[in-house]
């Protein structure tokens, strides 16, 4: 059996970390693509030279031509431009939409059978556009945000309860951004729901509310600390978990930006929902009951994503 091929579009902070993790886990041979000449080649060579030390066998190649992603089994997209001072959200949207067009066409031509995970922001709108530009089946294109947002929530909860992160499960749904919806009721320590733990005196509602808010601001907290750039270790780890679930047909139930067509009462939209990832891609979207503030928070988040998608439609009439 030949090795799988992993194509990483965007060789920046997350792209490089994705390449490192994929190599360490021997997920397959790796192609790191970027428009900047030398950057992906340099990172690929550096990473390949860590192979003898870490003991992994994977071919790593840097590329500036889409032909090099030919036949990829998995494509993870981080290509794009971050928001710079003075740039509006719509300016960023316009630039990254053009990037998604180029990437989508590259995937359509060279990797039409791949499972595609988009990470580029604004996530829910970019993954929607990428699916359209690539023309791949909707179940083969998804976005990563929920695994990361949930991981942040899990980390904070584990710290609060002083338990292993391994025993904390948590769900964050909705769009990636200020409007995301951390679901306390569906979050638990070894199966014990967080509201029960509050009743048991393990924490207070005020503290849990503060953790929910810190989760929502999780990306901004790191940007504030780093000053240049945004989080990359945890985002990369999160996308790798999704890729592994696909490659190994693990059928993990993970919060992903998945294409909805009727589910949650929405049509032709990408938004963060629980989904099963297996060899078929997004094999099933799980519709959980949302009540009260969960429902209103989800609706509000969906409204924000719709606004971004409408802005995409105004910018690019081919969509
Ligand atoms: O949860 C999530 N989805 C996210 C999203 C969490 C953290 C960061 N998130 C977003 O991921 C972030 O807002 C960015 O849009 C992406 C990538 O973040 P990263 O930190 O890796 O950004 P970099 O270091 O700027 O890397 C982007 C690379 C850079 O090397 C550019 O040269 C390249 O993208 N780039 C391109 N590559 C290919 N093709 C085109 N057109 C292109 N344009 C820029």
UniProtKB/TrEMBL annotation:
Active-site residues, Swiss-Prot/TrEMBL: 176 (proton acceptor)
Catalysed reaction equations from the record: (S)-malate + NAD(+) = oxaloacetate + NADH + H(+)
Taxonomic superkingdom: Bacteria
Residue intervals of the Lactate/malate dehydrogenase C-terminal domain: 148-306
Binding site residues for substrate: 83, 89, 121, 152
GO molecular function annotations of the record: L-lactate dehydrogenase (NAD+) activity; L-malate dehydrogenase (NAD+) activity
Residues annotated as domain Lactate/malate dehydrogenase N-terminal: 5-143
EC code(s) of this entry: 1.1.1.37
GO biological process, one term: lactate metabolic process
Enzyme class: oxidoreductase
Keyword annotations from UniProtKB, A to Z: NAD, Oxidoreductase, Tricarboxylic acid cycle
Gene3D superfamilies, sorted: Lactate dehydrogenase/glycoside hydrolase, family 4, C-terminal (3.90.110.10), NAD(P)-binding Rossmann-like Domain (3.40.50.720)
Family per record: Belongs to the LDH/MDH superfamily. MDH type 3 family.
Summary of the function given for this chain in its UniProt record: Catalyzes the reversible oxidation of malate to oxaloacetate.
HAMAP family: Malate_dehydrog_3 (MF_00487)
PANTHER family per UniProt: L-2-HYDROXYCARBOXYLATE DEHYDROGENASE (NAD(P)(+)) (PTHR43128), L-LACTATE DEHYDROGENASE (PTHR43128:SF16)
Record protein name field: Malate dehydrogenase
Organism: Eilatimonas milleporae
